[in-house]
Amino acid sequence: MIRAVVQVVANGLAVWLAAELVPGIVYTGDLLYLLLAGLVIGLLNLLVKPIVTFFSFPFILLTLGLFYLVINGLILWLADAFLAELQVDGCLPAILGGFVIAVCNWLVRAALDRD
Question: What is the pTM of this model?
Answer without folding.
Answer: 0.89
